[in-house]
């Protein structure tokens, strides 16, 4: 039992002894290296780009001087081109003062282990000297600044329209150098004794503002392709107008902010063209009368009348959605048919000279009646021209400056002028209208007005004309 205790005690003694020896060796090494680093730079010390690890100030100076003597700065340019500025050409030399020693003095020799953990980089501007005028001269003479060699960058842009649409044409990056930025890098590189500058890596070239990856440009080309994918078909009877990308592309442009602009004036011109071409409002019409005479009826407000402003807005919306559709224009007023004959075979024919009316429905004569029109003596003549039935109303009261008259069948076709029954009259036709006519309306027998009312609808054309030689009085 005593022997076991003695052995354990001896082992513990030996371990303690070994640890003391190890610690002693570490301490001796630490002190020795601390003394060493009194005159030497830490591990990982770099001065102006020169590795001065574990060097004395004198050896560091010698190494830096040697590096300066053979120093060349190489420019790595696009296309594999390389250029150099030679250190001796710009009179690059070392001018050591106390700076190197000051760096050494600030180094605590007892903290040398931190040199293995954290590297130290120092730049001493006063250590190097060069002729700035020579540097600028050699710098300005670099081939990368020669106008004959310089290619300026060109922004990516949107192509001309093709059947397949628009695409982005990639930017030309060129080789135009940011001269001031590169010069700053040159000065820094010389002071740090760095031997090369890669112009692309250092982003020294002027870049295009827009490339094929620019979001604004991508959005713009997508918008334009949406617009030109539209196909709008207008059908005006047998005539067809198709608006597609080939035309819409002429209306598109991109502003400086890469926003797509739809030319409102061009859009207006197109809608105006449709209006001018297919509007029949107020045009002169050819009528083969019931008297076997073909006449020209001028004036009136019957016919197709496009609401151009509203149509522009609708058309613009369709284009922006990129729709393919058959579109009916927005109208203030419509006619019975498209084409030269927009009246068709349902219409009212009023011969003011003969004081007679004919009503045709689907080509068949439905009403043939005398009438009384506006009083000529009082200058209340009924208007001539072609007009649409504005609406029809049963049991209406006609009100004027000096009258208030109830009627059973009211069918206005121009402002406050229309056809209606006139039960207060006992006769119609002849020359009554010359002195005893209406305020402008077409007075009809009650039964005739009733038949017309029951068979006519809004929009039906009313021809009002004068035809000399068809008078039915003084015969």
From TrEMBL:
The active site is at residues 420, 441. InterPro entries: LD-transpeptidase, LD_TPept-like_central_sf, LD_TPept_cat_dom, Transpep_catalytic_dom, YoaR-like_PG-bd. CDD domains: YkuD_like (cd16913). One of its GO terms (cellular component) is extracellular region. Keywords: Cell shape, Cell wall biogenesis/degradation, Membrane, Peptidoglycan synthesis, Transferase, Transmembrane, Transmembrane helix. One of its GO terms (biological process) is cell wall organization. One of its GO terms (molecular function) is peptidoglycan L,D-transpeptidase activity. Pathway: Cell wall biogenesis; peptidoglycan biosynthesis. The chain crosses the membrane at residues 15-38. Residues 346-465 form the L,D-TPase catalytic domain. This is Peptidoglycan-binding protein. It comes from Anaerosacchariphilus polymeriproducens.
């Amino acid at each position: 039992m005593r022997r076991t205790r003695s052995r354990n005690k001896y082992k513990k003694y030996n371990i303690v002894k070994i640890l003391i020896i190890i610690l002693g060796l570490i301490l001796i090494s630490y002190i020795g290296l601390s003394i060493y680093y009194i005159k030497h730079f830490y591990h990982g010390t770099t001065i102006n780009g020169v590795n001065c690890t574990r060097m004395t100030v004198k050896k560091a100076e010698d190494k830096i001087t040697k590096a300066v003597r053979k120093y060349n700065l190489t420019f790595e340019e696009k296309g594999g081109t390389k250029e150099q500025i030679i250190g001796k050409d710009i009179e690059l030399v070392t001018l050591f003062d106390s700076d190197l020693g000051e760096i050494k003095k600030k180094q605590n020799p007892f903290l040398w282990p931190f040199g293995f953990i954290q590297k130290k980089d120092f730049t001493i501007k006063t250590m190097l000297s060069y002729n700035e005028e020579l540097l600028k001269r050699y710098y300005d003479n670099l081939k990368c600044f020669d106008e004959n060699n310089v290619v300026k960058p060109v922004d990516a842009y949107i192509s001309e329209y093709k059947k397949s649409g628009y695409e982005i044409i990639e930017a030309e990056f060129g080789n135009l150098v940011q001269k001031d930025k590169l010069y700053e890098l040159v000065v820094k590189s010389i002071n740090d004794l760095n031997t090369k500058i890669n112009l692309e890596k250092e982003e020294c070239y002027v870049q295009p503002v827009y490339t094929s990856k620019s979001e604004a440009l991508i959005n713009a080309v997508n918008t334009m392709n949406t617009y030109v994918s539209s196909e709008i078909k207008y059908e005006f009877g047998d005539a067809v107008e198709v608006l597609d990308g080939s035309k819409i592309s002429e209306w598109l442009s991109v502003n400086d902010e890469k926003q797509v602009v739809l030319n409102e004036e061009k859009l207006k011109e197109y809608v105006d063209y449709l209006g001018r071409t297919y509007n029949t409002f107020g045009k002169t019409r050819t009528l083969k009368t019931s008297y076997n005479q073909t006449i020209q009826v001028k004036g009136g407000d019957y016919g197709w009348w496009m609401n151009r402003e509203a149509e522009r807005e609708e058309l613009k919306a369709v284009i922006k959605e990129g729709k393919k559709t058959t579109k009916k224009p927005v109208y203030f007023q419509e006619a019975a048919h498209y084409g030269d004959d927009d009246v068709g075979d349902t219409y009212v024919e009023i011969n003011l000279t003969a004081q007679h009316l004919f009503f045709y429905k689907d080509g068949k004569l439905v009403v043939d009646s005398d009438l009384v029109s506006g009083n000529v003596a009082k200058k209340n003549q009924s208007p001539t021209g072609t007009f649409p039935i504005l609406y029809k109303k049963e049991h209406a009261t006609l009100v004027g400056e000096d009258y208030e008259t109830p009627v059973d069948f009211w069918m206005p076709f121009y402002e406050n002028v229309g056809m209606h029954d006139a039960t207060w009259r006992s006769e119609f036709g002849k020359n009554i209208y010359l002195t005893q006519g209406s305020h402008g309306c077409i007075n009809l027998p009650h039964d005739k007005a009733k038949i017309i009312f029951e068979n006519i609808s809004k929009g039906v054309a009313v021809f009002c004309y004068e035809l000399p030689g068809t008078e039915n009085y003084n015969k």
